[in-house]
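Entry type: protein chain
Record version: 2
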Amino acid sequence: MDFPGFVNCTDVEHGPRFVMSGERDGVTVQVVTGYDITTDAWPYHVTVFRPDGAQRLTETPPRCSARSKTSAFEQGFVLALQALTPRTGFQREVKTDLSPR
């Protein structure tokens, strides 16, 4: 499976829980999911592993869930990409002239 913005995406674990790992700029991201029969959903959590330590991006127990395993992985990597993308700050000017040029 490939996820935009990540390389070396591989299945790390299969079984009651499924783990997908990917890399971006020297940082490893793991998305962990498993089927929950009581909710008929795939709850997932995301952890970012940097050289200086790990950071969990979601709560435990997971409150994020998806309708399928693939969707859980996709949503998890999107969440990680947002966390790893630098923010540019606030807009300094608001343009009020919206007329076509």
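Comment: The CA atoms of residues 33 and 44 lie 4 Å apart.
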